[in-house]
Specification:
globular, mainly alpha, 2 strands, two-stranded antiparallel sheet
Length: about 180
């Protein structure tokens, strides 16, 4: 089905192929980015997961739920990683004036120093990546395109009609095998 407006549906086969290509490219990119993040984090003695979480609160304290939304991961994963950061003295849980139970994760001086140790490595990698793309403006364009794609995926996933529903498993081929005699 084709449409005439920007919000109209695209051809089924073309849309599915476009989605498949986009999904595979995004997954491949995510794998590469996570590997690079692991290397950059390692320079500061952190894992990629710890660097992501502490980096999310470098600018301002956040709750575990807020960090999860920022990073697109589960709150439970953030909580486990944040608790490890706290145990290592890289962050603290502070009271949240807006919510009694949802505390705010804040980097300590030690945590800020760890983030700082990644700065020269991040800058060098960003310079190499920008050079590969043909300049800093092209890198900024790529970031904006990824932000638009992320927002579109989030909007599409939020629509009830497009939410995936888990289908029940097929019935067993030989139901009698599961019965107790």
């Amino acid at each position: 089905m084709t449409g005439s407006g920007a919000g109209d549906a695209v051809d089924g086969d073309a849309g599915a192929a476009g989605f498949d290509r986009t999904a595979l490219a995004a997954l491949r990119l995510a794998g590469h980015v996570l590997a690079v993040c692991g290397e950059l984090a390692g320079a500061a003695g952190l894992t990629a997961a710890r660097w992501q979480v502490i980096g999310a609160v470098a600018g301002a304290p956040q709750t575990a739920a807020g960090i999860a939304r920022t990073l697109g991961i589960t709150r439970q994963s953030v909580r486990r990683t944040a608790d490890l950061l706290v145990a290592d003295g890289l962050a603290t849980w502070e009271p949240n004036p807006a919510h009694r139970r949802a505390r705010l994760l804040t980097p300590t001086a030690l945590g800020r120093a760890a983030i700082g140790r990644t700065a020269p490595h991040r800058a060098a990698y960003a310079h190499r990546l920008a050079a590969e793309l043909g300049g800093g403006e092209r890198l900024a364009d790529a970031a904006r395109a990824l932000e638009r794609l992320t927002a579109a995926v989030e909007r599409a996933a939020a629509r009830p009609a497009t939410r995936m529903r888990r289908t029940p498993p097929p019935p067993p081929l030989y139901p009698q095998w599961g019965k107790q005699n």
